[in-house]
Every structure is written in C-alpha cells, then in structure tokens.
Amino acid sequence: MGVLYVVATPIGNLEDITIRAIKILLSVPVIACEDTRHTGNLIKILKDRYSGMFNVQYSMFNKFISVRDYNEVNMIDKIILELASNDVALVSDAGTPLISDPGYKIVRAARAAGYTVSPIPGANAAIAALSAAGLPTNKFIFLGFLGKKWELLPGYTHVIYESPNRTDKTCRTIRTKYPEAEIVLAREMTKIHEEIFNIQYSMFNETKKGEVTVLVYLPEEVAAGHGNGDGKGQQSENSGGDVG
Q1: Which CATH code fits 125-238?
Q2: pTM, entire model
Q3: Most buried of 14, 66, 211, 225, CB within 10 angstroms?
Q4: Domain residue ranges in the chain
Q5: Which residues of 11-23 are buried (b: 16+ CB within 10 A; e: fewer)?
Q6: Is the per-residue pLDDT at 8 higher than 60?
Q7: How far is CA 9 from CA 24, 34, 65, in A?
C-alpha cells in the first residue's frame, strides 16, 4: 500500500522548500496537483538543481493528475487506485495543500480507505504573513476568502486571503465595519517585491498585482457594539480559493 504525502511547495522563493519535500517529489511516481504544467516546471527545476545531491532513488518519470475544486470528487477513485501500488504526492500550485486549495476530499477518502497520509510541512502564506505582521499571535483565526456574511472576533487576529483586485474594497469594508481594527497587508511574500505594511485609518494603497494576505486584529476593549451586540462576533462563512 502506498502513502499519500501532502507536500508543501514554495509560495515564491524557490529555495523555500525542505530537503524532505525535494526527496519525495523527485522519487514518487505520481503527483496530484492543480496545474500540471506549473508543477511540471517545479519538478524540472528541482531535478536540475538537486539530482544526485541526496541519497534517494529518483523517479525517471512522474505521472501528473490534475486536481481542482471542480473535479476533485471525480479524481478520488483514480488516486485511490494509484495508492494501491504507488506512493502519491499531493501538492498545490503554491504553499501548503488544502489551505484554501483543493485536496481535503482526497485526504479524507485516503484515510477512510486505510492509507497513511503523511504531511510534509513547509511554506504557507497565512503563517508567513502572521509571523511578520506584528499583530498578536496567541489567538488567531484563518478565514480564507471571506464569505457574504462574516464577523470579527474581539481579541483575535484574523487571517484573510484576497485577490489583488478586491483587496482595496475588502479593506474599506473592514474599516467601515470596525473602525478601530488594525489591518496589515502582506503581498508578494518571499519574492523580490515583498511588502508587509499597515493600513492606517484612512490610508489605502492602490490595487497592485500579487496575491494578498490581509491580517486584521480587533482589540477586545473596542469591540463592544459590534457583532451580535454583546461584544462577541461570530466566525465567518468561508469560500475556497487558490492561494497557498
């Protein structure tokens, strides 16, 4: 029986990948991914850079299976069949799989079928942004992409994914609803044009290219009057997305 490896890949800088992840991606015969061309290019780069560097038997040929939100259910049987005789690596286009990316249904099915699922930790946009934002980290909530209904919880830092063309609108909506909230934007993390900056009370940058992580802290002492009237908000509904 094979093992399903859930492998984190870089979110920008290609050096942000673990030795263990490199060994697995270069040795497994099957890789489940979102964009086969994108992942294929990553595998080619890893082979060019690291082949012969580690004591591991490399796969001469990787079979790629495209797994996206719209076809994930249909791919379950195919991947379970591969696991009967092969190890399989599950990756996203960037970062840690399943975090606002497809894969949870496959992991759930593999575990239900008795296969070992092993995480290979690494880069993650939400945690990277949280670590450098300067907001409290003792209590935080990952909301992914905001749904239509959402509230902020007092005393928590909220981690939100947003597309570049919606970031300005989302920040203005948060500021209108929670004037005292602290907002930090992180974009192009680990890349040349990385930016992590605070949004002031009335200052908003123009929309720029690059995936954005929005971090919002709502102080407990100013939360009264928001949410359901007793100072306690409710966790939002989340929708999926393609940010790793």
Answers
A1: 3.30.950.10
A2: 0.86
A3: 211
A4: 3-120, 125-238
A5: bbeeebbeeebbb
A6: yes
A7: 12, 12, 17
